[in-house]
């Protein structure tokens, strides 16, 4: 589940980044911010997807991704709700949707991280010895 959640996050981030950079939908955000965020999403998407292809993704990096996703998602919701940018109605909908999606990725990744930890913990527990 962890590797699937990382790859899904990577593909979605990459696609959103490409959409933002190439098509630049009118969302009411300054062009420089929009391009910068789009380029970040492209690079981030490649990195997170690559992390998901590892035989055993590094738990510390995955935890950093989870925390980053939570911060990004909450910031997106605050941006849309508090009017930090003069977003269009479509921009508000898009920012809220991607913010909620990113929080969803964080939840899936955290659950996957916990499951991966419990599976590896079972394999490293000492076995009881029989005295017979």
Describe the structure in your own words.
By secondary structure, the protein is mainly α. Helices cover 80% and strands 0% of the residues. This is SPW repeat-containing protein. Keywords: Membrane, Transmembrane, Transmembrane helix.
What is the total number of structural domains? 1
**SSE pattern:** HHHH
What profile does the largest beta sheet have?
none
Termini Cα gap: 41 Å
Choose one word for the global shape: elongated
Average predicted local confidence, pLDDT:
89
Q: pLDDT below 50 for ≥5 consecutive residues: which ranges? A: none
Number of E strands: 0
SS-derived structural category: mainly alpha
- Residue fraction in strands: under 5%
**Compute the gyration radius: what is it?**
19 Å
- Give the helix level as a range of percent: over 70%
**Tally of separate helices:** 4
Organism: Lentzea alba
Protein name: SPW repeat-containing protein
Transmembrane segments: 35-52, 61-85, 91-113
Keywords: Membrane, Transmembrane, Transmembrane helix
């Amino acid at each position: 589940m962890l590797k699937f959640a990382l790859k899904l996050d990577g593909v979605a981030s990459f696609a959103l980044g490409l959409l933002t950079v190439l098509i630049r939908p009118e969302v009411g955000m300054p062009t420089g911010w929009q391009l910068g965020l789009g380029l970040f999403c492209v690079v981030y998407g490649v990195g997170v997807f690559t992390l998901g292809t590892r035989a055993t993704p590094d738990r510390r990096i995955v935890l950093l991704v989870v925390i980053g996703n939570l911060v990004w998602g909450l910031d997106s919701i605050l941006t849309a709700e508090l009017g930090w940018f003069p977003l269009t109605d479509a921009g508000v909908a898009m920012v809220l949707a991607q913010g909620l999606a990113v929080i969803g990725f964080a939840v899936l990744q955290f659950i996957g991280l916990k499951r991966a930890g419990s599976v590896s913990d079972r394999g490293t527990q000492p076995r009881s010895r029989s005295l017979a």
